[in-house]
């Protein structure tokens, strides 16, 4: 019995020592693990990495470097902690992964044709005592697909409303959609974002509602995708609008100065969507001339006559509505030279100006003569009255006063000189 007690007392301390050794080893392992995940700025053996962002299908470069090395090798591992490169040695059979540079202080690799599955944290390790590590996060951008616009199935009549829908799939993070009318951005409804099943990408949808006018016909409506994975601007899809509207009319004459005896036509032009195909010609307050023939949009005159003068109306129908326009026809006499309408117009203008100038001069001269004649008559009448009064005052008797009034003082003086 005493021997068994001695044996037990001897084995217990040995079991205790084993337990202590296990605890010590576990503590050192945990300390090493913690130390490997902690970055010491002043540690020359600590690896340094940086995060990278790359679009699907692109190439990402992973760089790991240390200031000093004690002949330990650098290693890159992927998100599943599979070794990619250990120094210069390839560890994973993936031809997309290539070695760029391997030295004692630097390990650089590239991954081409990047996929969404390559997204995550990559680890660079250096197997010193203890092992040191650094992590680099690779963010893989899902490239959005070209937007698709729906809602252009039918044309819309002027004043009506229609709704367009733009959809783009495959973006990560979610893309943003923008609407444009020609080059001007217009506001649509807020984007609706939905995650795609079985992959970390999104589908984005936006709607645009417009009330259209005839000015919107053939306008380009565009939906553009904005996303950081698109290097050269945005992706966009354009679609012209088709707006139905009644025709607006105009009449184009063959010449501005039609002459008697000439052939001549009036053309009716209707701007509408669709283009008008039915035309009706009328003459205001009279029947069409016998030599005027309707030829669709044309009204043709075989030989113009003064009797063709009048107001002509064209009416067009395109199935959406009707439009009408009038034109006044003035036929020139056959002797009028219509070869140079500009010269005729200029000559006529000059003639009128000359005639007007001559008339103005004549009126001015007549006014001047009337003024001069009036002043003369007024002055002559005043002199006559003054002389008549003087003759009467100076006469010694009635007979002499009459003589003085009739002949003035000069006559009296002469008679006096004669009698002397």
TrEMBL record:
One of its GO terms (cellular component) is presynaptic membrane. It comes from the Eukaryota. It holds the Pfam family Ig_3. Residues 389-408 are annotated as: Disordered. The chain crosses the membrane at residues 354-378. It is a single-pass type I membrane protein. PANTHER family: CELL ADHESION MOLECULE 3 (PTHR45889:SF5), IG-LIKE DOMAIN-CONTAINING PROTEIN (PTHR45889). This is Cell adhesion molecule 3-like. The gene is LOC107659832.
């Amino acid at each position: 019995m005493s021997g068994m007690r001695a044996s037990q007392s001897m084995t217990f301390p040995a079991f205790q020592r084993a337990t202590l050794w296990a605890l010590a080893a576990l503590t050192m392992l945990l300390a090493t693990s913690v130390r490997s995940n902690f970055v010491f700025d002043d540690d020359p053996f600590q690896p340094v990495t940086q995060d990278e962002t790359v679009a699907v299908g692109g190439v990402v470069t992973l760089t790991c470097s240390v200031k000093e090395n004690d002949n330990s090798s650098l290693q890159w591992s992927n998100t599943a902690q599979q070794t990619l490169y250990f120094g210069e040695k390839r560890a994973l059979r993936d031809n997309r992964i290539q070695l760029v540079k391997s030295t004692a202080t630097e390990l650089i690799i590239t991954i081409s044709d990047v996929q969404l599955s390559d997204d995550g944290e990559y680890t660079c390790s250096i197997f010193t005592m203890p092992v040191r590590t650094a992590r680099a996060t690779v963010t893989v951008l899902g490239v959005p697909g070209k937007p698709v616009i729906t809602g252009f199935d039918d044309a819309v009549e002027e004043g009506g409303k229609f709704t367009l829908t733009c959809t783009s799939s495959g973006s990560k993070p979610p893309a943003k959609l923008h609407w444009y009318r020609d080059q001007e951005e217009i506001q649509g409804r807020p984007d609706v974002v939905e995650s795609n099943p079985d992959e970390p990408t999104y589908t984005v949808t936006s709607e645009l509602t417009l009330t259209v006018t005839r000015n919107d016909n053939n306008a380009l409506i565009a939906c553009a995708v904005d996303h950081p994975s698109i290097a050269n601007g945005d992706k966009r899809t354009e679609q012209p609008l088709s707006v139905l509207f009644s025709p607006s009319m105009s009449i184009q004459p063959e010449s501005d100065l039609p002459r008697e005896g000439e052939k001549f036509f009036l053309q009716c032009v209707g701007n509408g969507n669709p283009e008008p195909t039915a035309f009706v010609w009328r003459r205001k307050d009279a029947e069409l001339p016998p030599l005027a023939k309707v030829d669709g949009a044309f009204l043709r005159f075989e030989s113009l006559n003064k009797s063709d003068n009048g107001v002509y109306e064209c009416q067009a129908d395109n199935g959406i509505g009707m439009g009408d326009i009038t034109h006044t026809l003035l036929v020139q006499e056959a002797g009028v030279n219509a070869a140079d309408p500009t010269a005729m117009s200029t000559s006529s203008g000059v003639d009128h100006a000359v005639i007007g100038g001559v008339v103005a001069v004549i009126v001015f001269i007549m006014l001047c003569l009337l003024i001069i004649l009036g002043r003369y008559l007024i002055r002559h009448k005043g002199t006559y009255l003054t002389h008549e009064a003087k003759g009467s005052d100076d006469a010694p008797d009635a007979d002499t006063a009459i003589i003085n009034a009739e002949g003035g003082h000069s006559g009296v003086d002469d008679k006096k000189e004669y009698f002397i």
